[in-house]
Amino acid sequence: MSFSLDLTKPLGRLGLAINTLVLGVVFYGISVGAYHYMTHTLPESGAHAKEAAVKAALVEKSVAKAKTAAKGKAFDEKAAIAAAEAAAEPEVKKQAEKIHHDAAGIWAPFAIFLLIISAIFFAGFLSVYVQRRANDGGLKGLWIFTNHLGAWAFACYVAFYPYLADHGLRNAYAPAFIGGLVLLLPVLFAGEGHHDHDHDHGDGHDHGHTH
Length: 211
Hints:
- The chain is mainly alpha-helical.
- It has 6 helices and no strands.
- It has one domain (13-189).
- It has helices at 13-70, 77-137, 144-159, 161-166, 174-188, 194-210.
- It is rod-shaped, with a radius of gyration of 30 Å.
C-alpha cells in the first residue's frame, strides 16, 4: 500500500481500498467544513450584524418620537430605550428570517464552488490510485475508462454529500454512489503483480537482444 501519486508504482487491492477510504474521509471532512462555513458561519455573522442595525434604527426612531412627545418635560432616556428595544423585537424577528435567507443566498454559490473543488481533487487523486491498481492488475484498453468513471461518480457524491443532505437529495443521487462503487469493483478485484510480470517480460526481451 502506498499513497504515492507515481503511476509506475503498483497498488494492490488492499491499498486501493484503504486509499479510497482515507481520501473519502479527508475530502468528506473538507466538504462538510467548507459547506458549513459558507452556509452557516459567514451568513449568520452577516445576518446578526444586519439584525443589530435594523434594531438600532427602530430603537433610535422610537426614542426620537418619545422625545418629541415629551415636549420639554422630564424625559427618562434609559427607560425610553428599554421600551423601544422591547417594542422593536417583534419587527426584528419578522425581518430576521428574510435577512438570514438573503445572507445565505449571497454565499451559496461560493459553497457550491468549494464543493466542486473538493470533488475535483478527490476524484483526481482517486483516479491516480485506480490507474495504479489497473496497471498492477494488468487491465488495459478503453474499459479502464469505466473504472475512472466510477471513481468520479463516487468522489462527486461524497464531496457533495453535505449539499445533498441539506436539500434532501441524498436518496435521489444515491445511484451515483452505488454505481460508482460497482464500476470500481473490476479494478478492485483484478489480479495482482501483473505490473511486475510486464517488466520481467520486458527485461527478458532486452536480454534476448543483447545475445
